[in-house]
Amino acid sequence: MLLNPVLDNARPLMVVGLPRCGTRFIANAFNKHPAVHLNGEIPHVTMKAAIEFVTATDEFFTSRDRVLTNRDNAYVTIESGWTTQRRELLYTMWASLPKSVPVALPDHSVGWYGHKTPNHDQFWEFYRDFFGGSGPKYVFCMRGFADNYISRDAIGAKPIAQVAKQYRAAVNRYADMKEALGDDVSLFILEDLREGGVDYLREVLFDRLSIPVSADVLTVIDPHTPANSSAQKGIEKRSLNDAERAFIAKNRDLVEALDAARSAQRI
What we know:
InterPro entries: P-loop_NTPase. By secondary structure, the chain is of the alpha/beta class. It has one domain: P-loop containing nucleotide triphosphate hydrolases (Rossmann fold), CATH 3.40.50.300. 48% of the residues lie in helices and 12% in strands. It contains eleven helices and seven strands. The strands form two sheets. A five-stranded parallel beta sheet has the order 2-5-1-6-7, sandwiched between helices. A two-stranded antiparallel sheet has the order 3-4. Strand 3 and strand 4 form a beta hairpin. The protein is globular.
């Protein structure tokens, strides 16, 4: 058995969305809940390779009813460990692939297990097909385009046009996920946290996803905790320069994109 027994009945839960929009903050808030255990970020290239392996293995076993044994003309039916333990392998990958050392699992059963990884929503269709009717629940993190771009630029982001392309893709992907998954995906908007505080967190993280939460858990979640590394370091947000303002003025869909996301509409 690969899987820690405390995860036997755990349903998948992931924090996804755009970088620099509070994924770490949300994961830390979730981990205050005794029934939730989320690991840190998994590198995109690593997870992509892992998914390719899982997909190829799944196709091999599920597309064949029988497999050769060590005798040339003998076959046995496949009721192998793969069909019964494929979920264990994926959960074990989630535990083994994060950039940082995962926090140790608790000594009690966990109801929700996963990780926080920006842009991991790119794999949502794989997870839908892999888990079937007991598929993952997601918190999808976003913020306004200008603030997202400035925050990403502070850590050496790509040109504004490339960030804009990724931003549009995220808005559209969220709309697709919401249409397909319904209440299993919840939108977290960083700007709304500042006004809504812990009540907003209760709604986005727990109420919308039907994850029971006690008042005791909510009291230990601090909505004023810095949401990303720049905020933790006290780095003040800069203003847009003339070229950046001109770019946004020519791309008005970026200004309207957050409202589109609130309505789960593509842009």
